Amino acid sequence: MSSNPTIVLVPGGFHVSSVMDTFSGELQKAGYNTRSMGLKTVGNPELSINDDATALRLELLDPLIEQQGKDVVLYLHSYAGFPGSAAIRGLSKKERSVQGKKGGIIGLIYQTAFIPKQGDSAIGMLGGSYAPWHSVDHETGLINVINPKKTFYADVPDPLATVASNQVYGHSIVSVNAASGPVYWTDEGYDGRRVYIHAELDEALPPFAQDLFVANSGVTWDVKKLNSSHSPFLSKPTQLATLVQHVTQEFEKFSEGSK
């Protein structure tokens, strides 16, 4: 298992890290080490994108890459595209190899995720207003989800959908209105190493929005389509793990060929 890249899983807003456990287990069965971390802005109204990006970098990516020299595939879900895009500065495998450093990110997987540019906010990328499924509570500073089961888990069977819905928490209003700082998915070190997983039944970020995110990025993404809701890691964990394994193997081949 240790010779394979480590797959880092970052769930989006409103979610806790345990939502990835079943999917993570499928990847581990296929021989991959995995790590996952929930975002700091879940349940914390005073925190924003930079807090998430800093935590992702210092608590997850730096220990694996800077300290252990691991090759990493970074899997970002939904809002995690914001902090993840900032946290990857200087970590591409290509860039680190040129510097004589071991390890690095060999590929990016954005799953129904925002692909922000500098200055973008999540609300701005949604058209400038909150989503119909948002319930905004300015007293607590959190956005809640009106119907998590329908929005996130429409194709997840019960009782799993109910259990997952009960583990959905409010998300920082500040974070979804904050402008992104510099982003690094644009780095040429990720050329040929960007995959976008498009969920065709997504009710949180509809397919047309996902298409716009990809088209407006101005770079090439290998788009993989799944007939799933916003959360294929719960509704189709085995199928998703097989897809991610295939993508990871392609990243590895690309890395070998670019040496």
Structural class: alpha/beta
Shape: globular
For the largest beta-sheet, the strand count, sense and barrel status come to: 6 strands, parallel
> Helix content range of the residues, please?
25-40%
> What are the secondary-structure elements, in order, as H or E?
EHEHEHHEHEEHHEHEHEHH
- What's the total count of β strands? 9
Please give the radius of gyration in angstroms. 17 Å
- Total helices: the number is 11
| Percent of residues in beta strands | 15-25%
Q: Uncertain regions: pLDDT < 50 for 5+ in a row?
A: none
Euclidean distance between termini CA atoms: 23 Å
Q: Order of strands across the widest beta sheet?
A: 2-1-3-4-8-9
Overall pLDDT score: 96
Question: What's the topology here?
Answer:
Layout: E1 6-10, H1 21-29, E2 34-36, H2 49-67, E3 71-77, H3 81-87, H4 93-98, E4 104-111, H5 122-125, E5 134-137, E6 142-145, H6 148-152, H7 160-165, E7 171-172, H8 173-177, E8 194-199, H9 207-217, E9 222-226, H10 232-235, H11 237-257
Parallel strand pairs: 1-2, 1-3, 3-4, 4-8, 8-9
Antiparallel strand pairs: 5-6, 6-7
3D architecture notes:
The chain is an alpha/beta fold and 259 residues long. It contains 11 helices and 9 strands. It has helices spanning 21-29, 49-67, 81-87, 93-98, 122-125, 148-152, 160-165, 173-177, 207-217, 232-235, 237-257; strands spanning 6-10, 34-36, 71-77, 104-111, 134-137, 142-145, 171-172, 194-199, 222-226. It has a 6-stranded parallel sheet, sandwiched between helices. A 3-stranded antiparallel sheet has the order 5-6-7.
